[in-house]
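B., you asked whether I could sanity-check this one before it goes into the benchmark set. Here's the sequence:
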Amino acid sequence: MNGKDVLKRNGRCWNVGFKSVLTFAVVLLFGSGVSAQAKTITIKSPEDLRDINWANKGFGPGNTYVIGNDMTLGDGEYATCRLTRGKFVIDFNGHTVQNANNKLGTFSISGADVTLKDSKVSSSKPSVRSYGAGAIDMTGGKLTIYSGNYLGVSNGTNNPTALHVGGGTCVVNGGFFYGDTIGSDCSQGTMYVNGGTFQTGYMFALGDLGNGKIKISKANFISGTTTYGYHFAIGGYAPNAQTYDFNRWLASGSSFSTQFQTGYWNMQSSVLAYPYAYNFYAVAYETPKLAVTSTVKKPGATRIKKIKSKSKKLKVSWKKQSGISGYQLQIATNKKFTKNRKQENVKATASAKTFKKLKAKKKYYVRIRTYRNFNGTTLYSNWSSTKAKKTK
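And here's what the prediction gave me:
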């Protein structure tokens, strides 16, 4: 959304000139800034949910938004939640957000860093449902999904998906994704799948519909049944089906649970309305259920070897580990690491870290763990045993 759209939403009419330019700059300044202090905000109305992107509405990036009740985002021009910049965490909290507009997705992510989860999701209730373009329509930025049920359900006039990745980076660590025609798809950008279940009523549980990059470490795929009787668990567009390789979808240490066949389906001969967009598909067929399993495990833990006390400083050394991306250290003034906590990430080549600007003659507690970056996410080891030391 551009500055003109923002000004329209505020219900004002601005003349071209210095006043409009100045106001436009102010709106952008306050609309793009991250909150000085992160807040947890409960959202109870569709109007507020649509406006959480805008700091000048009292919301903006940098906050956690908890959905307070079921809601429908209406049928107007702005009948969707658009997230364009900054960081957002959205917890559906056991409630359903849906969009009645049959042309728009329920959530539109074009440049923000968004985390979606449902802390109270039940197996039977959708977290996000769309009768439009899709439950989640992503064209840029970063999206991380941990849990929730995402449904793209046709109302007879469209074929929505649960998750459409048309740009940016999407990391799926869990959740359920169902689309009447296609469960989820990636046409541009990158999609990392580290968990979850994808299901379709007709074509692909997960499809590559363009130039996207898909890497799967672990997930389940449940196909629908086409008019040809095939079960397309996964599939992708390719001009030559014989050269399409689904193994390129697999992340390191992952494998398909069963053998499947690849072939092509000439959509052009059966669906004349789409002679160009849907020509030949390489498909995995006759496999109603397909799973990807991973042997990748979290990295091994390390231990603190020594803590050396200095004036308002503590130098922590540890046993180095191999096959990791780095170490994460925490220091605090209580055993639960809730008071005066500091956290630092250091490189995998390091074996010591000095914490500075501490309080003099104060007892501090320290712990460490390793981490490894994998498939768009971070795997952590268990925390080490806690050690304590007083500063000088």
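One thing to flag: The first strand starts at residue 40 and ends at 43. Otherwise nothing jumped out at me.
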